[in-house]
Amino acid sequence: MSLTEHEIEHLREHIEHYPEKRAGAIYCLYYVQDKYGYIPRASLDEVSELTDLSPTQLDELITFYTLLRRRPVGRRLIRICDSISCYTRGSEQVLAAAKEASGVEFGQISKDGAVTVLPSICLGLCDRAPAGLVDDSEDLGELTPEKIRDLICSYAAETLDSKSGGGQQILAVLKDQQ
Amino acid sequence: MEKVLSRNFHHAQPLDLATYRAGGGYDSLQSIFGRDREEMVNELRASGLRGCGGAGFSTGLKWSFLAKDAPRPVYLVINLDESEPGSCKDRQVLYRDPHTIVEGVLASAYIIGADKAFVFVRGEYKVGAAKLEKAVQEARDAGLLGDNILGSGFSLDIDVHLSAGRYICGEETALLNALEGYRANPRSKPPFPAVKGLWGQPTIVNNMETVCHVPSIMHKGAQWFQGQGQNGGSGTHLFQVSGPVKNPGVFELPMGVTARELIYDHAGGLLDGRKLIAFQPGGSSTPFMTPDQLDTPMHFDAVAKIGSRLGTGGVIIMDDTICPLKYTRNLIEFYARESCGFCTPCRDGLPYLVHLFDKFELGTATAADHQTILELCGLIGPNTHCALAPGAVMPVQSALQLFDDEFKKHIAAKGCSYSPVAATASQAAAGAGVQGGHH
């Protein structure tokens, strides 16, 4: 696992437009996470070299900022808002249904590697409560327990269909780490 | 009332630069470039524009704090970290009309004489940040950003920064730390950002909506802006209504519209069979308002006068089916989780409040716990670095006053008699998203 020369050059260029290198840390960490689905140890060293921050200092950032992660998640990351607007429209029941459908606790990867469900702070989708967000890019609105169950089932099916091995790859990485 | 922020929301897709300009976009620059900066700041002060991120501070006054001989570079930082529960207005502009943001940033940067602008976008708005980045690139290609813009001698570039989560980033000094690549712990003030901000340089931090009002004020004048408001408010505002109402949404309306008009005429009133118990006027950190206050004009001074805050103008409804204690517990839990952990009263006090509220739900609470909540609020609120903790305890103190009998009932009945909150998904409105002021 390592970044290509081209990628490192891209990150270096990005860092250069800040007066201080560390300002580019979040961008670099995002870049690595987008590539691998999480931030592996080896990448910490690479980002460390680019930003002049120690791996520990980078970990300080990763553990603070909720969208960064040091462990893999399922093929689909489902965030469901539990803040007040969604709460008044039953997000608790939506979250319970999502947890049940995933078969594991929040934050863990479902047995088939298809999903990880996480409660989230307000997503700015209060007008569509109860709301959620998939892979930090697809909005979910007007959720119901049925709707979230169906969605998780469809992700499970998509994982089975995936020629790349889908969720199994993620599970293999996880096994490797343990 | 003329729509300003949502004027292009009827288009299915965000406008490209050519279409945006054809509709009068960037015309404001003609009224801005070359005009005396101090005069423009004074006009802004006269317009009555106030910070739309929640604090409601006079924008013109804030800008006047920037010293004339401020050391270079001067930064303009736009706060697009909208995360206050009940607030979903900035997202609409970001996703539906990003050129309005670029124009607002450019106009504001010219007036304060900024050398560079950063737009700090919360990580959950990644797709929107990409739309904004595209608009910025279009503006660069057309010479609206870069060196010597339109021959004015003024140069500016806009950097779109995608953040990585945490509510506290919306606190202006925490935001500056986040931008610099540190944990988002708020800084001690003074020095204020206008003196020592980003990388120690003079910095103006404004909410996205605030700067988006600037071009039209400069183009049409302070008096025009004042005329857009009603009942003592100035301009328009993107109000939001969420919770158990028929038509939750974002509505651009005159500042000063009454809460009643907003909730009943625009948001369609409560769901059938529900009764309004209370509402938070401007996000989850604002003290409750009650049905007898529905005729209050929704502008900063009128809402402050009755003891609450207009905040972001994101109204959240509490109806008669939800336990007021559970509702309040949800608010505290949010702030407990989002505390940056720097100050002990906030880091340790808020989770303890959650624990005390749990006792009421479980039926183990006593009158002493009721008293402890009251005292704890007084200890947490004023003893922290930033406004997160005061914002967290304000609605709790308000709940203690309004729902005193509910606390007592929970103690006497040894638990909660309300049903769990039922799932009632919002009706997906056709073309969901922002709705115009007047249909």
UniProtKB/TrEMBL annotation, chain A:
CDD domains: TRX_Fd_NuoE. Keywords: 2Fe-2S, Iron, Iron-sulfur, Metal-binding. Coiled coil: none annotated. InterPro entries: NuoE-like (IPR002023), NuoE_dom (IPR042128), NuoE_N (IPR041921), Thioredoxin-like_sf (IPR036249). Its cofactor is [2Fe-2S] cluster. PROSITE patterns: COMPLEX1_24K. The keyword DNA-binding does not apply. Signal peptide: none annotated. The keyword ATP-binding does not apply. Pfam families: 2Fe-2S_thioredx (PF01257). Belongs to the complex I 24 kDa subunit family. This is NADH-quinone oxidoreductase subunit E. It comes from Pokkaliibacter plantistimulans.
Automatic annotation (TrEMBL), chain B:
Residues 325-370 form the NADH-ubiquinone oxidoreductase 51kDa subunit iron-sulphur binding domain. Its cofactor is FMN. Transmembrane segments: none annotated. It holds the Pfam family Complex1_51K. The keyword GTP-binding does not apply. Keywords: 4Fe-4S, Iron, Iron-sulfur, Metal-binding, Oxidoreductase. GO terms for molecular function: oxidoreductase activity. PANTHER family: NADH-QUINONE OXIDOREDUCTASE SUBUNIT F. Belongs to the complex I 51 kDa subunit family. This is NADH-quinone oxidoreductase subunit F.
